[in-house]
Specification:
TIM Barrel; globular
């Protein structure tokens, strides 16, 4: 898999990134640590050199699983993690980073990201200047190599960039969820930031495995995903039927097609989660798919029948 630059840094990342939200187990159903560990290792074996996690995923459980799974291969792997919105004061950021380092069994984090802007989910409002000062100090100490942000709007991103070097933005982004294109993506393109797209398969909806009668198990947060709710969900099913011939032309799955679309967008990589090794290998194979301009134009047209039904709220879930 051909590696790409992470923003303006000297860090090289794979276009397909192993996502490990599910490894935390909270807000997911039927997750097994052993299966997750095998999935992470299979992804690395298949050429995925970058793993994304966060301190809030299972209160550090995901980070601990990642650290154990990576083990002695740490020098070959790029690890990205995040500090949550309720720990953005200077001393809190420093302490949170130390906990993440311990969880991950490493002495440095390649990409350390602000998970959600200050004030999100009722968290205390902290000046971005204070948070960025802490992140810059950690970078100067060699405990982190680069700084990123997640779930930031254009204005929030621009404000953060005024107080330090940022290399990436992590937004929800898929063929069916494209809010970032009209907001922060132009800034990222102009400033050379990478887009690390989470939910690039729209939390599995773009794999085609969730039919009209699907019911998520209790505790699975995808029950609140707005793409799974009517009247949008019916349009999604129509879009999947139209996308299937494109996938068939390339002899790939719908999920691989969705990932290939994301990584074909300027500056974008796709964070793809996997419950088991087979899913991880399948996701990795999408890194070798080359879509034509005609494919991309057709997919864009198909997606509009869904995105036209959505409002301007950039949050993927109806919480």
């Amino acid at each position: 898999m051909e590696l790409r630059n992470l923003g303006a840094s000297d860090i090289k990342i794979s276009p397909i990134i192993m996502g490990t939200w599910q490894a935390g187990r909270d807000m997911w159903a039927d997750i097994d640590d052993a299966e997750t560990t095998r999935a992470i290792q299979a992804a690395v074996d298949a050429g995925v050199n970058t793993i994304d996690t966060a301190a809030v995923y299972g209160k550090g459980h995901s980070e601990r699983v990642v650290g154990k799974a990576v083990g002695e291969r740490r020098p070959q792997v790029v690890i990205a993690t995040k500090v949550f919105a309720n720990e953005l004061q200077y001393d809190q950021v420093i302490a949170a980073c130390e906990r993440s380092l311990a969880n991950l069994q490493t002495d440095y984090i390649d990409l350390y990201q602000i998970h959600w802007p200050s004030g999100s989910f009722g968290s205390p409002v902290v000046p971005i200047e204070e948070t960025m000062r802490a992140l810059t100090a950690l970078k100067e100490q060699g405990k982190i190599r680069a700084i990123g942000v997640s779930n930031f709007s254009r204005s929030q991103l621009e404000e953060a960039m005024a107080f330090g070097d940022i290399v990436s933005l992590q937004p929800p982004y898929s063929l069916l969820w494209r809010h970032v294109e009209a907001d922060a993506m132009p800034v990222c393109a102009a400033k050379g930031l990478s887009i690390l797209a989470y939910s690039p398969m729209a939390q599995g909806i773009l794999t085609g495995k969730f039919g009209p009668d699907h019911q998520f198990k209790r505790g699975d947060h995808r029950r609140a995903n707005r793409l799974f709710q009517e009247p949008v969900f019916t349009r999604v099913q129509d879009a999947l039927a139209a996308l299937k011939p494109i996938a068939d032309r390339h002899t790939i799955t719908l999920g691989q097609l969705a990932l290939a679309w994301v990584i074909a967008q300027p500056g974008a990589c796709a964070i793809a989660g996997a419950r088991n090794a087979d899913q991880a290998r399948e996701n990795a194979q999408a890194g070798a798919v080359s879509l034509t301009p005609e494919d991309l134009a057709e997919m864009d047209r198909i997606s509009r029948q869904v995105t036209a039904q959505l409002d301007d709220n950039p949050v993927l879930w109806k919480w």
